[in-house]
Give the backbone structure.
Amino acid sequence: MAEKYKNLINGKWVEPTGGKYIENRNPANWDDVIGLYPASTVEDVDTAVAAAKAAFEKWRLVPAPKRGDVLKIVGDKMLTRKDEIAFEMTREMGKVFAETKGDTQEGIDTAYYAASEGRRLFGLNAPSELPNKMNLSFRVPIGVGGFITPWNFPMAIPTWKLFPALICGNTAVFKPAELTPKTAHTLVEIIDEAMHEVLGRDYIPGVINLVHGKGSIIGERISNHPDIDLISFTGSTAVGKRINEVAGASLKRVSLELGGKNAQIVMDDANQELALEAVLWGAFGTTGQRCTATSRLILHEKIYDEFLEKLIARAGKLKLGYGNDKGVDVGPCVSESQRKTVDEYVQIGKNEDKAKLVLGGEFASDGTLKGGWFYKPTIFADVKPEMRIAKEEIFGPVLAVIKTNSLEDAVNILNNTKYGLSSSIFTNNVNDAFRAVRDIRAGITYVNGATIGAEAHMPFGGVKETGNGHREGGWTVYDFYTEWKAVYIDYSGKLQRAQIDNY
Ligand code: NAP
Ligand code: MG
């Protein structure tokens, strides 16, 4: 019998009301049951929100550097457990061990950045227009945050949200993806242990609450709960729109990080070997299940045939398998339904006029791959910018190759999607590189780098339907988790009227 896990509510690990659970299985080997996780109810969310609301009144008064001490310990604990966390993450969602270690490292980087921010959280001062008066402004926490996350970065994404939220003095109700509850459990266990260690007898229950369960129940309740002040969500554009609509009714602050349809441009003067390495990593790393995955390759016509041939040869040699086994390059799709979606898009691509399937295009189920949701790395050549496979997010190991004849045309093709997350250009022409940086409409542009590889201390997010204008990561995220408070201190001893007395 698989182990039953619990929710963390008000400082206690508790069973879900209703007593129902969801199985967590290994997508590389579906017989491997990792554990049973709460199928929580609206009642569980409500208890968690009440705890977070009460905790806020205490947590906001803990000095920010002290809150930083908690996050420092969190980072240390994650570092100590890095390999174990990565192994279990690979087991529950499939990407290879090197990548789950990277995912964990991003969480560690975020912890140390947030910890140090406890000693900054700078405000701004400005002169007053009146004599003997001082103008200050500083950041104050907002209240209770609801955090809803996807399965593809089970550690990094929750940490991008929870750590800055906590350092700013907010409290949290966290609903992780159903498919990756174990990583979420470990993260919250670590945060709670660190809270106990740093605060000792002053431990505050309810600063962080973990409520597992279905998006349609737990996510919906978080979105409409009157006592939730802000929501940070990463996931699909469809669900993001739904959350925005529901949460908008009570004017919650909402940060949405949504889908992408990222492209890599390769110009005729590029270092081809480098560009090839990058597209293999960008398109097939994490089995293409990254919001920043390279889903389109825009190739200059002068190198088109030569580059494509090399790409097909190299992609065809990628080794599929269980990501915790040595030598494996590509893991499975995260679930049966995700693999089905990928296959549906491949059928759409096959039926689209003149797109040519040149690699893969089917399930991989030989030998040990039989028990998992594997899909062969797939490449479509001669794709036209208007085709569905060139415009819609697939979220799997499928690459659409499009021919271009100029920089301007390449950038137009790149921009021809409703998304705008990541982008890349390979060129050795400095003028082309700067023009591309200027004209590409995306939150992130890499020059001579793959579309993936964000660093924790830089702003992360996208334009158009990739989001609603907020950024995670770096210094920018602290604007989302705080309100600005303006303070005027008049030491003139008389009533001074701005705009009136001095004009
Ligand atoms: P998803 O289906 O949108 O799910 C994301 C989260 O939302 C899950 O926790 C899900 O719960 C929950 N949810 C589902 N329905 C909900 C509802 N009605 N109200 C509130 N929450 C609800 O996305 P996914 O399949 O997990 O992740 C893949 C998507 O995420 C892709 O589109 C990808 O591009 C995007 N993504 C974006 C970024 C970025 O930073 N821009 C990063 C990573 C991923 P369940 O687990 O129960 O379904
Ligand atoms: Mg799983």
